[in-house]
Amino acid sequence: MRVTSDRKAETRGRILEAAGALFRSHGIDAVGVDAIMHQAGLTHGGFYAYFASKEALVAEVSAASLARAAARWERISQDADQATALERIVDSYLDPAHVAAAERGCMLTTLGPEMARRPESRGAITDSIRRMTDALARCLPGRRRQRALAALSAMVGAVVLARLSDNPALAAEFLGAARKAAGLR
Amino acid sequence: MRVTSDRKAETRGRILEAAGALFRSHGIDAVGVDAIMHQAGLTHGGFYAYFASKEALVAEVSAASLARAAARWERISQDADQATALERIVDSYLDPAHVAAAERGCMLTTLGPEMARRPESRGAITDSIRRMTDALARCLPGRRRQRALAALSAMVGAVVLARLSDNPALAAEFLGAARKAAGLR
DNA sequence: CCGGTAGCATGACGATCGTCATATGATAGT
DNA sequence: ACTATCATATGACGATCGTCATGCTACCGG
After folding, report:
1. In the A/B pair of chains, how many CB contacts fall below 8 A?
2. What gap in Å lies between CA A13 and CA A81, rounded to an integer?
3. What SS3 string covers B96-121?
4. A167 touching B (Cβ < 8 Å)
5. Nucleotides of C under 7 A from a protein CB
6. With an 8 Å Cβ cutoff, is A174 touching chain B?
7. Could you give the count of Cα atoms lying within 13 Å of A163 in the half-sphere of its Cβ?
8. Is the CB atom of residue A47 positioned under 7 angstroms from any atom of strand D?
């Protein structure tokens, strides 16, 4: 039973990963259960052996993805000194590669408004947002908390606006301006 | 023919308005053509006398709504002096009432990521974003353009994060931090 | 080697989607 | 007053959605 249980947990992880990528690429409502299962290498019917509903999957995917991002920022903010930690977090977020690879990008920028409309998910999401702002604050001088909230806002907004911009130069300008606003020169 | 043509244009406007509110409330893919027509006081079949497809409606709704927002910012930035114009634009955007009334809110915050996935809409959207940043820049001192890009990023991000926050106090903190980042004290 | 169970596949259900062909009804010009 | 036309309604189409009942297959414990 040990082996089979591991197998099931691994398959479950594949479904979560597939759903995360597809949701970020096309939006939550644009992706059906069959597309998710197919991307995970399975067929659609078995889905309900793993999740009670599509909504339950959505809640778990968003919570897990944001918790992972929060953990990464916490780790960076504790391992490195303030200046380099800030640089690593902000620069990887405001990287044109992040803008281009939405399917692996931060869910705040790919699914933020969609998640805001789903009340069941918002508790866990708020928790991760708190952890991210706290990690950012640890990297900042002065009025840390206010600066951290402003920095996260600018980072999320800049990535959204960069993805909306038809013109690559304008997109790069948003990223650069947010970088400066987050405390980097 | 004059009167009937006016009537048709007015009905068309009602459809656009209904679609705008429903898209912002529930997301583009979550709203069907029949829900839009019903909200406009009509039945679903007549839709295709006004728009070639749902996608065409989406493109027109997003372009029109953002163009109207851009025009409002331009008007404010020209009518008032720098300081009060900035205050009027930023404070109305970072108002808790804006966060609460998503169905009438700025589409950058309600549909930003969803519009970014629809290539047909992005040209007109980029144009409105340019007009908004230019209007903001007119209200700012110093390195105007960079400050305007950072301010718009922070404003969009703060409203998204405030809508995601389960806790009203945290939501208010995001709005306040972005207000400060936009140059208000 | 055998039986049972866990993991997944097959196939079907009602509902809803975007789209369109066609019918109805009111209005406007003659 | 008649009729042509335009704005909207009705109803249907194939496709796809989320969900579930059921069937197959392969591995595990004995």
Report:
1. 173
2. 34
3. HHHHHCHHHCCHHHHHHHHHHCCHHH
4. yes
5. 6-12, 16-22, 27-29
6. yes
7. 29
8. yes
Count, residues in chain A: 185
- Write out pLDDT tens, residues B127-175: 999 999 999 999 999 999 999 999 999 999 999 999 999 999 999 999 9
Mean per-residue pLDDT, B21-28: 98
Q: How many CB atoms lie within 10 A of CB B41?
A: 10
Q: Which of A26, A116, A155 sits opposite B117 (nearest CB)?
A: A26
- Over chain B, what is the mean pLDDT? 95
DSSP state of A141: -
- Please, which contacts does A71-74 make with residues 24 or more away whose CB atoms are closer than 8 Å? A71/A131, A73/A131, A73/A132, A73/A135, A73/A136, A74/A131, A74/A134, A74/A135
pTM for the model stands at 0.95
The total of other beta-carbon atoms located within 10 Å of residue B181's CB is 26
